[in-house]
Design a protein that fits this description.
- The protein is an alpha/beta fold and 351 residues long.
- Helix content is 35%, strand content 7%.
- It has helices at residues 50-60, 91-108, 123-130, 135-142, 178-188, 199-207, 216-220, 225-229, 241-244, 252-263, 274-284, 329-337, 340-350, and strands at residues 81-84, 115-119, 146-150, 170-175, 265-270.
- The protein has a five-stranded parallel beta sheet.
Length: 351
């Protein structure tokens, strides 16, 4: 089972599904878009050699079998599969799909597979684990073969998942249009994170450095959070957000994130084509397929963590404040102004 206890600070539910609870639903919170490629190009916009791109794609899309390496705690090599969970991109749905595929491997192939998950949305627990204050949590993650990881890539080495030490990590992630992701986060946590304020007013407080006791994680979700998670060496500093909006295509942070898309990740999907992304992952990882010949268990994508039916932000504090599925043009513009790095990274991912 996953190491997914929370400390009351979680902004997203990561409860594993019960056995057999794997049904498919439309992702009604994801915006519709035209079909997108899920490979990357250089952030400076220069054309890569087409033949080299095709060759790299063919190599990357080759089916990859599991690494078997028996130990006292596992039948598989440690540190071999990672899901970088980006909040409000369909990550919880993908986590539940992964847990189904993992349970199926354990039962159908009679394998012992240690699994761990860690999510910075439970900040107190995350820092305690990362900084070694929770030895049990640290042990689970350092001795895991599969992991769901919702935190910056730069912290991975603290859990001993480190390609420089010889780990051959197969990593996947899903990115989402930054405006849609921020708006989805706002609709999901309208009261607990953003105190029933208009999103533009929250941004105004950020710009005037008057956020008071707003939770740090809630504010970070509004500013280039996808880029921050994709950085393996640098750190994105929210108080320098205004600087990041200047010439984002030339940003070293964007370049680092795009380089990691190419060198670290086996495959990257997009929320707008989530079902197609899962099919791509299944082409690369045969055990990830919806159906396999060696098991009767079927794994399907669920729709989890949709916006609440009552956000308790209505006039009397208990009724619902009905928010549209998409922001108005003014709000969209404000979101874009504060997420230029994420926009550049997302455009590179779908190019």
């Amino acid at each position: 089972s996953g190491d997914s206890s929370t400390d009351g600070e979680s902004t997203e539910d990561h409860t594993p599904p019960e056995a057999g609870e794997h049904s498919s639903h439309d992702d009604e919170d994801a915006s519709e878009s035209e079909e997108k490629s899920i490979y990357t190009n250089d952030a400076d916009g220069e054309e890569e050699d087409e033949a080299a791109i095709v060759a790299a794609l063919k190599e990357r899309l080759q089916p990859k079998e599991l690494f078997y390496e028996k130990s006292d705690t596992s039948d598989l090599r440690l540190h071999q599969f990672l899901h970088l969970h980006q909040m409000k991109t369909g990550g919880t749905s993908l986590d539940h799909y992964l847990r189904c595929a993992l349970d199926r491997l354990r039962v159908g192939q009679n394998l012992t597979i240690p699994y761990g998950n860690i999510h910075e949305c439970s900040q107190q627990r995350y820092y305690a684990c990362r900084d070694g204050e929770d030895p049990h949590c640290m042990w689970r993650l350092t001795n895991a073969s599969f992991m769901s990881y919702c935190a910056p890539l730069k912290d991975l080495e603290k859990f001993q998942w480190d390609t420089t030490l010889g780990d051959e990590i197969r990593a996947i992630t899903v990115l989402r249009n930054p405006v849609d992701r921020v708006w989805s986060m706002f609709r999901f946590q309208t009261k607990s994170c953003y105190r029933c304020m208009n999103l533009t007013d929250v941004y105004d407080l950020i710009d005037r450095n008057q956020t008071g006791d707003f939770r740090d994680l809630c504010l970070k979700q509004l500013m280039n959070h996808e880029t921050a998670n994709m950085l393996s060496h640098s750190e994105l500093l929210p108080h320098e957000n205004a600087i990041y909006q200047q010439e984002p295509q030339q940003s070293s942070l964007v370049q680092e994130a795009v380089d990691n898309m190419k060198s670290f990740f086996t495959a990257i999907g997009v929320t707008e084509e989530l079902e197609q992304s899962v099919k791509l992952f299944a082409e690369i990882f045969p055990w990830f397929q919806q159906r396999v010949e060696w098991s009767k268990m079927t794994c399907a994508l669920t729709h989890d963590n949709s916006s609440p039916s009552n956000n308790h932000c209505g006039p009397n504090g208990t009724s619902h404040w009905e928010l549209p599925s998409h922001p108005d043009e003014h709000t969209r513009k404000v979101i874009e102004e504060h997420n230029q790095l994420d926009i550049a990274v997302y455009e590179a991912a779908v190019r």
